[in-house]
Specification:
This protein has one domain: Sandwich (Immunoglobulin-like), CATH 2.60.40. Helices cover 3% and strands 30% of the residues. It has 1 helix and 8 strands. The strands form 2 sheets. The protein has a 4-stranded antiparallel beta sheet with strand order 1-2-6-5, with no helix packed on it. It starts with 15 loop residues before the first strand and ends with a strand.
Length: 137
């Protein structure tokens, strides 16, 4: 399980500034700093929570609200892909095989995304000012 202690004690890292749905099966994600492309585009570094009870029906969500973040409920490569939108290394689009469930709250939770030119960050990439929630369209 990923620890939830204060990220201020960790080395500098990018924070997800915003995640919003732009199509039934796509999310645009914007970080506050330039990211390491390999870690930012690794779908296994992302979790999508929803407020749907178990079992979670096919959609973008990988876990429910009460679940812990584990390797088993991370986004899988056969489930979605992430591509950069431009050369900023700050803006990405995640495209899923399934559409988001309409009317359901989703929360994008990235972890292990490094700053450009760095490796080894092992914490969460969201903070108190992250706009990482959206209601499925």
């Amino acid at each position: 399980m990923i620890s939830s202690y204060d990220n201020r004690l960790k080395p500098s890292h990018p924070i997800l500034a915003e995640a919003r749905q732009i199509a039934p099966n796509q999310i645009i994600m914007t970080y506050d700093k330039r990211t390491d492309l390999a870690s930012a585009t690794n779908v296994s570094n992302y979790w999508i929570r929803s407020n749907v009870e178990q079992p979670i029906p096919p959609g973008m969500a990988t876990e429910g609200m009460d679940w812990g973040l584990t390797e088993l409920n991370a986004v899988r490569p056969d489930f979605a892909r992430i591509t950069p939108i431009d050369h900023s290394n700050m803006r990405f689009v995640m495209t899923f095989r399934f559409n988001a469930i309409s009317g359901i709250m989703h929360v994008v939770l990235p972890c292990f995304v490094n700053l450009e030119g760095m490796t080894g960050f092992d914490g969460e990439n969201w903070g108190p000012y992250s706009r990482n929630m959206f209601i499925g369209m």
